[in-house]
Amino acid sequence: MKSTIKLSALGLTLLFLFNIGCKDRAQNETTASDPNTSEAIIKSNKGQAFIEDDESTPNVLQIALGSPDHSTLVAAVQAADLENALVNAGPLMVFAPTNAAFDALPAGTVDDLLKPENKEALANILKYHVTPGNYSKDFLKKFKKLGQANNQNVIVEVQGDDVFVGGAKIIASVPAGNGIVHVVDKVILPPAQ
């Protein structure tokens, strides 16, 4: 009688373990074959830049993403893997060149910079467009230069009511949840080191 109980208990244990193994395998197969689940996992692994929040003031990255005049800048930020840097607590001042500013560069420059082998050079240029702080255009008139995120300085010039940063004119300013976006009419190129 005791051996029958032991065999029954062993049989139930094996059946239980087999059932759990089948459920795990089925769940793994569902996850692997469901493109929506796979996409969600990939997105969730990209960091804080991809957290959606409809209630907060948009951060500098969200402002750029929402602007049709900054699609080239967004493509460059994505190619340089700098999305997460633009959503940190800041405060950040981003001097955001328009698509027209990128178009004014010599032919082929943007396409060349977007290549994977030029990721470091692209990141350096983009970081030259970012300064710690949250200063209005009028407050920037008090500066002669700014220290940029790529550890280089950029010259600030005032001509009448206009403010130029690295030769790029600030044409608009948009407050952000983690700083401010100053829209500029030129791509600011760092000096050669």
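^ that was protein a. below is b, sequence first then the tokens
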Amino acid sequence: MKRLLYLLPLLVLASFTKLDTVKKSTNVRITPQSTLHIKGTSNVTDFTCLYNIKNLNEPIRIHYESGADVITFEKSVLVLENSGFDCGGKGINRDFHGLLKSDTYPEIKLSLKQVKLNPHKSNTADASIEIEIAGQKHLYHMETKYHQDNGWHISGLLKLNIKDFNLVAPKKMLGLIVVSEEIEINFKLVVKEA
């Protein structure tokens, strides 16, 4: 019995040490000053598909747990409607939507999983993001830059291979024009609490 009375205060104290990692939730908005585009190449020319940020006018609910240098996210998803991308022309837009299987999978989902501040580079962090395209999910790690000035300014460049999502690059003109399997997602987001 004496032993139990001795352990009980220690257990109570240990339970309170976790209070600084309580899960929190908030709503954020991506402002119209933001940009997001996908860049690709072919053996003939480069192409850029720009996302219409006005499609992101609804607040996004994020759930997170904050530690010393790491923020862990749960159910924090940015949904991009495929129809919001403009690649500069009807033909290339049609090819882009064909590649993404937009008829069956009309959205790209970006789920933020974790952000770890980089102690060796100021205003940089390593982010873990799960991307879902055409029903396939893949986890990526990337470096992001950030600063605060009338909202959070977050930028980054992610290179990925469309084969990760079981997608096949289109070929045109009997195979004379071949699109590269490597694409880049570039973003500069201005995020404010809603």
